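Explain my protein.
***
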Amino acid sequence: MTAGRERAALAVLFVGVLLAALDIAIVGPALPAIQVTFAVSPRWLPAVFSVYVLFYLVGTPLLAKRSDRYGRRRVFLESLAVFAAGSLLVAAAWSFPVLLLGRSIQSFGAGGLLPVAAAVIAETVPLERRGRTLGLIGAVFGVAFLLGPLLGGLLLGSSWRWLFVINVPVAFVLMGAAMRVLPRSASRVSGPFDALGSAVLAVVLAAIVVGIGQIDTNAPGASLQSLGVWPCLVLIALGAPLLWTVEKRAADPVLPPALLRSPQLRVVGVIAIAVGAAEAGMVFLPAMAVLNFGIDEKSASLTMLPLVLTLAVGAPLAGWLLDHIGARRVVQLGLSLTVAGLLLFGLLPLDWPNFYLSGALVGFGMSALLGAPLRYIALHEAGEERRGAGQGLLTLCVSVGQLVGAAIIGGVVGSASHALQGYRHSLLAVAVACALALVLSAALRGRVTREPGAQVNA
């Protein structure tokens, strides 16, 4: 691939990832208008987010595996088409259930964009530049969370429906560009598609999302016995071993057991869960600011700026460091900064300088974890035939960490005598989880100097 074609392909991939990331951040300002349009009670309004999380989780491993079978370009195009169709349905929604259906279709398509982009980068970008290129993906998410609320506010001047209509022409332009510049990778996989494994995986993931989402953090013991939670726990307990059995027997498993047998990928998975929990903790920063500084909710959202800016700036830097000092050191640096920032949130007096310093430390730390290094290791360990599946597994681990982290934080805050202290104590608990991940990171390999299958340096 020529240098010009490579740059064009990367631009298409990054805009695709940006489109999916923006759709998470841009919808926040629209929620009040959506509530008025459909006369939705506040109890049901969070479903606009939760249904997106659920189907994103389901779509990620299925579309990532599909890209291993049928090629990256084909699945990237399919993902964009599904995303555009969901966006159009949301924009045209005549009822709240239809809007949720559109959001579910949207998020299923979005689930294929990031894993496919990472796999294409692994197949087209030389090893010595791969880290910094993957690092740009982390920067894309930082930019999305900066631009999302701003674009949302501008488009809301006409109607909240324009937030979703705008996705359709952008997706079609991207599809046309992808047809011209993305490589047509041939399938290296044979055998029937793992339909049974896909179905079982979808049920288990749905049980995780719904079960955790139904836990009442003010009365966790009682909620575990409710009809909204305990059937989900039973499904998880029965479904997980069934999934393992099905995947061991499948000719081409959607979640290959070989990935879970890799010691490096197991360590990466545990680190990803801890990182997801830390990411969930950062969602509650505006709530902490409201309680601590007495500001309104609109102003409180601005307190996320130091974290988001450092995430956007730090992700390319982490990618550059990855190419020079190796994944293990970058992961350890990122975990160390994240632990330091979380500890400062929990222990220092919460004045403005300390609040912003803590957020910046966590932002720099997360930029070294969410962008390039973990994906870099997963790409290398999964090998050529399972790159998509490896990226899907990593995304799953981060998402599970987000869900579990949010549930734990909610439980700690719900049981605390004062909500602010509850938030601070919960961030200390997340810091402990990240510190344990830091200890485990010693088992990661050092700098990779050759492509998968070659000898690596320790």
Remarks:
- Residues 127-155 form the longest helix (29 residues).
- The chain is about 75% helix and 0% strand.
- The CA atoms of residues 204 and 239 lie 6 Å apart.
